[in-house]
Amino acid sequence: MDNYIEQFTYYLKLERGVAENTLVNYLYDLEKLQQFLGSDVDMLHVEETDIRNFIYFIADFLAPSTQARILSSLNHFYNFLILQNVIENNPVTFIELPRQTRKLPVVLSVDEIDLLQSSINFDKDEGLRNDAIIETMYSCGLRVSEVIGIKLSDLYFDEGFIKVMGKGSKQRFVPIASSAVKKINNYIKESRSHLKIKPEAEDILFLNRRGAQLTRAMIFTILKDLTKIAGLTKNVSPHTLRHSFATHLLENGADLRSIQLMLGHESITTTEVYLHLDKQKLKQEVEKFHPWNNK
Fold first, then answer.
1. Number of H helices, E strands in the chain
2. Which of 45, 122, 153, 156 would you label with 163, given CA atoms 20 to 30 Å apart?
3. What 3-state DSSP class applies to 18?
4. Are 136 and 176 in contact (CB under 8 A)?
5. What is the CATH classification number for the domain harbouring 36?
6. Active-site annotation holder among 242, 279, 290, 295
7. Does the annotation mark 243 as catalytic?
8. How far is it, in rounded angstroms, from Cα 70 to Cα 98?
9. Buried (b) or exposed (e) across 254-283, using 16+ Cβ within 10 A?
10. Which residue ranges does the record assign to the Core-binding (CB) domain (predicted)?
11. How far is Cα of residue 180 from the mean position of the Cα atoms in its chain?
12. Same domain, yes or no, for 131 and 53?
């Protein structure tokens, strides 16, 4: 069995080009199924009933969204085995995805983002860097993995764009605001240039104090600390700035297709969540200002 999982791993990496985090999730999900079945049961001989029992089991402690992800992982694995002529039927094919309610993402107002940035301590060496990171994330709508991966060679400031490596190693060019360009240049000149940069990080834009590439966890920590200092009660993460970027664009008249391209969403359906946010705001405005609601 280990041999097939190893082949599946190569397939995901080389032919599907999945991101490292996605690959880890796939393998973790397969491990979960094997733990449920027991070490004496071969996953090659699993039937639809076994998968259903597995889903019933994990439904007691995992959210519907996680159940759906696990089913997706298993579906990819068994489809791969069919491609390799190892099995004839996919036991996941006729299993319905668990019903899930779509939670609206947390969004900050422009004033709240300003408050977040005003909480940065510029007396510290990392102040200029953190300011540039937040400005870039909000003005470009980037994922945290995309932010930490930005290279100096990805900056096309004369043209007003940066090159971003998105999910599945897909590149896209994203417009960058002049305010972000200014703050990045300031960080490069006043802060980054004074670091002792590690050889492997020479082309990486945002670095830690030791001259190495920042981690995803570090970006989360930076935002959590600033949120606390700013006194914001919302649950702020790097994705909150991405959601805020898209929502504010939509509120100011940008079309959904343009937002999809800038966010790097493969499907317009993913971007449509921001329509729900926009409708929610309209509903709140009517409830607040319509004269009959004050009766």
1. 13, 3
2. 122
3. coil
4. yes
5. 1.10.150.130
6. 242
7. no
8. 11
9. eebeebbebbbbeeeeebebbeebeeeeee
10. 1-82
11. 21
12. no
**List 76, 143, 192, 243, catalytic entry:** 143
Nearest partner of 119 among 109, 104, 134, judged by Cα: 134
Establish whether 192 is a catalytic residue.
Answer: no
Q: Is residue 91 part of a domain?
A: no
Q: Which two tokens stand for residue 264?
A: 């790097």
Residue by residue, pLDDT tens for the chain (295 residues) are 678 888 988 888 887 788 888 888 899 999 999 999 888 888 888 999 899 889 888 887 888 888 888 999 999 999 999 999 999 999 999 888 776 655 667 889 999 999 999 999 999 989 999 999 999 999 999 989 899 999 999 999 999 999 998 877 788 999 999 999 999 999 999 999 999 999 999 999 999 999 999 998 899 999 999 999 999 999 898 989 988 988 888 888 877 788 888 888 777 666 666 665 555 554 554 455 445 555 4
Give catalytic status of residue 274 as yes or no.
Answer: yes
Instruction: Tell me which residue range forms the domain holding 148.
Output: 110-286
Residue 43 and residue 177 in one domain? no
The reply to whether 239 belongs to the active site is: yes
The residues near 289 (Cβ < 8 Å, ≥ 6 apart) are: none
Q: Is 224 tagged catalytic?
A: no
Is 242 annotated as catalytic? yes
Q: Which two tokens stand for residue 292?
A: 């009959």
